[in-house]
Design a protein that fits this description.
Blueprint: E1 3-7, H1 12-21, E2 26-32, E3 35-41, E4 54-59, H2 61-70, H3 72-89, E5 91-92, E6 94-98, H4 102-114, E7 121-122, H5 126-139, E8 144-152, E9 155-162, E10 175-179, E11 183-192, E12 194-195, E13 202-203, E14 208-211, E15 213-216, E16 219-223, E17 227-243, E18 245-263, E19 266-269, E20 278-288, E21 291-307, H6 310-328, E22 334-346, E23 349-361, E24 363-367
Parallel strand pairs: 6-9
Antiparallel strand pairs: 1-3, 1-4, 2-3, 5-7, 8-9, 10-14, 10-24, 11-13, 11-17, 12-14, 15-16, 17-23, 18-19, 18-21, 20-21, 22-23
Length: 381
């Protein structure tokens, strides 16, 4: 059953009676001012013998067909885009070899081309790509250490690691473990060499902690390359400034999907974004040369102005100071203690100065030159 809405400029009471006499069912009546809009079956339209009938809209299958006809150009465009995406999604437009060595790039580009990995060809299966990778690695065992062919949409990205054969160098005959910082020695684990300083000794940057010169009774017996792990107690002073007034993003949970086109440097969205403040995450779904189609996910947020309390600002500034220090330290370092030297608040900005005591590796292996020791001459008679 197809329903239609009609508007008749006549007396409503008379029309309803007339519909009843002609067995015309009225499904709904809408009143707009003094005008009434009737919803009836489309098949009953020919029973109405009244002039100036205005058809407002169709419902049901005919309405659906009418909407399709009205939007036919848009629907055809969408279908063409889908077909193009499906077709080009199975094509390779570009092959890019990523490596700093131009000789390696040229070698791979030529080899891949001969094996069918080239522009404007259809994609190969995963098994075919694996076979090609293994073939290239076997063909060039002295040049290629590792190879990966990444299916990146309409592009193959080839990542490669060059095999570098280096001659093994003999370890230095003589080296010392020296301090890299001013510190107090906390622990020494020596594997080779002779420790000349011990736990709780103060050292300065460049002082020898473990010597590669092996002595006995003050006489040098041999030389070796000292090996040792030395931990020391070091000190750092770190400052941090933090405004009491700050802004944060509060996401509303509202999201919208959008499409955008990129031609060269020009980026155009299909639909306008009506959010006042928002973040956009975009993903490329189609690329052909300088033309690309992106899917966007738009997330609405609003900026919330907040103000730290004195205690909150103090704790946040202390956290930031610690994060600054941790950037300088390696994973084996440990913060032993912290002490705030001063804390001031001026013009809505808190400023702190923190002293840290740290346990970290301070020993470094440094090669040294063997010096010939001149024996004192015996006095002549």
């Amino acid at each position: 059953m197809n329903k239609i809405k009609i508007k008749i400029p006549s007396d409503n009471h008379y029309i309803i009676k007339k519909f009843h006499r002609k067995n015309i069912d009225i499904f709904n009546i809408e009143y707009i001012g003094k005008t009434a809009i009737y919803t009836i079956d489309e098949a009953d339209l020919e029973k109405i013998n009244i002039e100036d009938i205005e058809i407002i809209s169709y419902r049901g299958l005919k309405s659906f067909i009418k909407k399709i006809k009205y939007n036919i150009h848009f629907i055809i465009s969408c279908l063409i885009i889908i077909l193009l995406l499906y077709f080009f999604g199975g094509c390779i437009i570009k092959v890019e070899v990523i490596h700093s060595n131009k000789d390696i790039r040229a070698l791979l580009e030529n080899e891949l081309f001969s094996l069918g990995i080239k522009s404007f060809t259809f994609k190969k299966s995963f098994e075919e790509l694996q076979t090609i990778k293994e073939h290239i690695k076997k063909e060039y065992p002295n040049d290629i250490e590792w190879l990966e062919i990444v299916d990146d949409g309409m592009k193959y990205t080839i990542r490669v690691e060059e095999r570098i054969i280096t001659e093994k160098k003999d370890p230095p005959k003589y080296c010392n473990i020296v301090s890299t910082k001013d510190a107090v020695i906390m622990n020494i684990t020596s594997h080779k060499g002779q420790a000349i300083l011990g736990i709780n000794d103060h050292v300065k940057n460049g002082d020898i902690i473990v010597s590669g010169k092996i002595k006995f009774n003050e006489e040098t017996k041999s030389h070796t390359c000292a090996e040792a792990t030395v931990y020391g107690n070091t000190w750092y002073r770190v400052g941090a400034n933090l405004p009491l007034d700050h802004e944060t993003k509060e996401y509303t949970g509202k999201k919208k999907n959008n499409l955008a086109f990129e031609i060269g440097t020009k980026y155009t969205r299909i639909f306008k974004i009506h959010f006042d403040e928002y973040d956009v995450e975009k993903k490329c779904i189609f690329r052909l040369g300088h033309f690309a189609i992106y899917k966007e996910t738009v997330k609405e947020y609003y900026t919330k102005k907040e103000k730290y309390t004195e205690e909150e600002a103090y704790n946040e500034a202390l956290k930031q100071a610690k994060e600054k220090l941790e950037i300088k330290l390696n994973n084996q370092a440990t913060i032993l203690s912290e002490k705030v030297l001063q804390s001031n608040t001026y013009n809505s900005i808190i400023s702190i100065d923190v002293f840290y005591s740290v346990k970290e590796i301070i020993g470094k292996q440094v090669e040294a030159q063997i010096e010939e020791e001149i024996e004192p001459k015996e006095p002549s008679n």
